[in-house]
Specification:
Helices cover about 35% and strands about 25% of the residues. The chain is of the alpha/beta class. The protein has two domains: about 120 residues, Rossmann fold (3-Layer(aba) Sandwich), CATH 3.40.50.10170; about 120 residues, Hypothetical Protein Tm841, Chain: A,domain 3. The strands form three sheets. Strands 10-9-8-13-11-12 form a six-stranded mixed beta sheet, sandwiched between helices. A four-stranded parallel beta sheet has the order 2-1-6-7, sandwiched between helices. The radius of gyration is 18 Å and the shape is globular.
């Protein structure tokens, strides 16, 4: 029986990818006032951004309950003896801790290992996709662990923001705090390093911000996977895809939307490019 792969909704997997590869996606939660929505299940990205703009109440996010993970593990244990779980960076969310704690609540016997991806969005998504493909091809559990830890070092992303205010409010701003003092008319660029948000540049125009995302993608000497994501700015996303398609004509570029949980902390206007590959 192949190893089963589990991740969470912050991987921003495009529609159909999880089903095609047999990946179980655990949704995190978004709460507007007293109403709780499962990320990407009860509330789509399009619905979320409309609600975000029109709501007087700012949303907050929360991790799934241990029971949600345990139930998913038990269901998969009917099909396999081994489950590999990859979560959003433990420095951004408590999801990793919940995924680990949930193992003790299982009713069925099954080997479950939880890996802190140290990433989010499609950078984490590529780690998960690669593991799922290898699992479906018959890779052993130890081989999958080795592959996953290897690919964690091979993914990266850059994201352009209209504002860092949402990151600041959610407490996820990390070392990018230094950009807040010069936010006026600035398009900040951020990255993740060791699972923490940090500044990666800034510019005074959206066009130049897109140039910087393009330059980041072009800095790879070899690309296995590439994705473009947007938060309610599809025209910018499509434009970046068009440019990158000329740069990497042999690669299929994943097109994704940031989920409501990610959008809670970024706000609208986020544009990012994620890559799995090598720079040397």
């Amino acid at each position: 029986m192949p190893v089963k792969i589990v991740t969470d909704s912050t991987a921003d997997l495009p529609p159909g990818v999880a089903e095609e590869l047999g990946i179980t996606v655990i949704p995190l939660n978004v709460r507007f006032g007293d109403k709780v929505y499962r990320d990407g299940v009860d509330l789509t990205a399009g619905q979320f951004y409309k609600k975000l703009v029109n709501s007087r109440v700012l949303p907050v996010t929360s991790v799934p309950s241990p029971g949600v993970y345990a139930e998913a593990y038990d269901k998969l244990a009917e099909e396999t003896d081994e489950i590999l779980v990859a979560t959003v960076s433990s420095k951004l969310s408590g999801t990793y801790d919940v995924a680990v704690q949930s193992i003790g609540l299982m009713k069925k016997k099954c080997r479950v290992e939880v890996v802190d991806s140290q990433w989010a969005v499609m950078a984490m998504g590529f780690v998960v996709i690669s593991a799922a493909r290898a699992a479906n091809d018959g890779a052993s559990f130890d081989e999958l662990l080795e592959l996953t830890n290897h690919n964690i070092q091979r993914v990266d992303f850059r994201a352009a923001f209209d504002t860092l205010e949402y990151l600041r409010r959610g407490g996820r701003i990390g070392r990018a705090q230094v950009l807040l003092s010069s936010m006026l008319n600035i398009n900040p660029i951020i990255a993740l390093r060791d699972g923490v948000v940090e500044p990666a540049g800034r510019t005074r125009s959206r066009a130049r911000a897109i140039d910087l995302l393009y330059d980041f993608a072009a800095s790879f000497s070899h690309v296995d996977e590439i994705a473009v994501e947007d938060a309610d700015c599809p025209d910018d996303g499509d434009f970046l895809v068009e440019r990158l398609s000329s740069l990497y004509p042999d690669n299929s570029i994943y097109r994704s939307k940031t989920t409501p949980v990610i959008g809670t902390h970024t706000g609208p206007g986020l544009l990012l490019v994620a890559v799995m590959g090598d720079r040397t």
